[in-house]
Design brief:
Largest sheet: 7 strands, mixed
Bound molecules: pyridoxal-5'-phosphate
Strand content: 15-25%
Number of strands: 17
Number of helices: 13
CATH architecture of the largest domain: 3-Layer(aba) Sandwich
Distance between the termini: 28 Å
Helix content: 25-40%
């Protein structure tokens, strides 16, 4: 199916002009308030204008904003590294800092390639990823993404990759059901490795909870453990893309910790410094690092702004607040409550096919037919209409299209700040359900 052109970005002239924000709310130049039901694109995990984070960044800026990585280390960088090590647990202890999620994924890919080269297996150059995934906008990350709407214009220029079926319990691959989809998708990975030749495969890259491309799709039960076993068996590195679902978004600091699995390499970004300053990281195990260290002495990948000092200071402040306020436990406990509230608020709406997700990362999927799970035709642009209606109603949420086949499908993601109050969460759910109902009614679908 031909992909439609990427979702049009509105000209800035058409957008409301935001002038101020505090906590879970933003205000535009007309004085209109918006509640941030998605933390932007699942970024602002502590809400806006947090005094403690701002003070930490300001203090760092007045000492030194950016110390270049070839000349210096800093307290902020070293402290953040220790925090990340502690939160990751296990052997995920070495990292490269970057300034976006795409760079984090790109760095994961390069660490994998450097590892195999250092390990005398330079033939391992291909990557395996999945359909209905999003890994970012740099060429490497984009090429691994299964998101036709966003990749179509660049096809032909990507690094070699093999795309497997999505592992989705609500939309299991043909011949599978919710209980068997994990094992069947894992078997598809093993078959692909054997077909291509294990000696050609560098890594398998996946989101343990799929974000924008699928709509908060958790790994089916048992899937991640099987993937871990298969990757280990064939010397293929397991890369967990936790840019969106990591840093506590789904209730554990590492999303894959929920599945009891340690990847070889992982990315993290959005929630790491909560959007106060752009920051991400690619993190690898000591086993991967030791191979690289023994041969090359250092990671080959990195950027001018790697380990940007003010960004690291923001990360330290954000992570200290998350730990001190016990926000991971709160987020974990809120997941089922949020899904329950959404189900109640949308009760009787035939077009709601599924409500799923974990922690502060939940999603409602719209379907034209509950029994067949057929999506609405993309030409209806339902997700765009929900976004517009929600903005009208003073709610920022994250509706996306294309989750079913890259073109059709409508999902509405809620990813509120971890420190939202219950009253704020209730307002978010209420406004989201109201917006969905209004759009469906206006379209003659309810
Ligand atoms: C899972 C995942 N990986 C990578 C990226 C790319 O991150 P960024 O937009 O910060 O470059 C995103 C962004 O949404 C993402 O959700």
């Amino acid at each position: 199916m031909a992909a439609k052109s990427p979702e049009p970005l509105k000209s800035t002239a058409e957008l409301p002009r935001v002038v101020r924000a505090k906590g879970s709310y933003l205000w535009d130049a007309t004085g209109k308030a918006y509640i941030d039901g998605s933390g932007g694109p699942a970024v602002y995990c502590l809400g806006h204008a947090n005094d403690e984070v701002n003070a930490a960044v300001a203090a760092q800026m007045s000492d030194i904003a950016h110390a270049y990585r070839y000349n210096f280390t800093t307290d902020a960088l070293e402290e953040l590294t220790e925090i990340i090590r502690a939160q990751c647990g296990g052997t995920l202890r070495e990292m490269v800092y970057v300034t976006s999620g795409s760079e984090a994924v790109e760095s994961c890919l390069k660490i994998a390639l450097q590892y195999h080269t250092a390990n005398g297996q330079k033939s391992r150059r291909k990557f395996i990823s999945r359909q209905r995934s999003w890994h970012g906008n740099t060429l490497g990350a984009l090429g691994l993404s299964g998101f036709a709407e966003r990749t179509a214009a660049y096809e032909g220029a990507f690094i070699p990759s093999i795309k497997l079926s999505p592992a989705n319990a609500y939309r299991p691959v043909a011949g599978a059901d919710a209980a068997s989809v994990g094992a069947i998708c894992a078997a598809e990975l093993e078959a692909a490795i054997l077909r291509e030749g294990p000696e050609t495969i560098a890594a398998f890259v996946f989101e343990p909870v799929v974000g924008a491309a699928g709509g908060c799709v958790p790994a089916p039960d048992g899937y991640a453990k099987l993937v871990r076993e298969i990757c280990t068996k064939y010397g293929v590195l397991m890369i967990s893309d936790e840019v969106m679902c990591g840093a506590g978004r789904t209730g554990t600091w590492r999303a894959l910790a929920y599945d009891g699995v340690e990847p070889d390499i992982m990315s993290v970004a959005k929630g790491l410094a909560a959007g106060y300053v752009p920051l991400g990281a690619a993190i690898c195990t000591t086993a991967v690092w030791e191979v690289i260290r023994a041969k090359d002495g250092a990671f080959g990948t990195g950027h001018t702004f790697t380990g940007h000092t003010a960004a690291c200071a923001a990360g330290v402040a954000v992570q200290k607040i998350i730990a001190r306020e016990g926000l991971l436990a709160k987020v974990a406990a809120n997941g089922d409550r949020l899904k329950g509230w959404m189900a109640d608020a949308l009760a009787g709406v035939e077009a709601i096919g599924d409500i799923r997700g974990r922690g502060h990362f939940i999603c409602a999927e719209l379907v034209a037919d509950r029994a067949t799970k057929a999506p609405f035709d993309a030409s209806r642009q339902l997700h765009l209409k929900v976004r517009a209606q929600a903005m009208e109603n003073g709610l920022i949420c994250y509706p996306v299209g294309g989750n079913v086949d890259g073109v059709n499908g409508d999902i509405v993601i809620l990813s509120p700040p971890y420190n939202c109050t219950d009253a704020e969460l209730a307002e978010i759910v209420d406004k989201c359900a109201t917006s969905i109902r209004q759009v469906l009614r206006a379209e003659g679908l309810a």
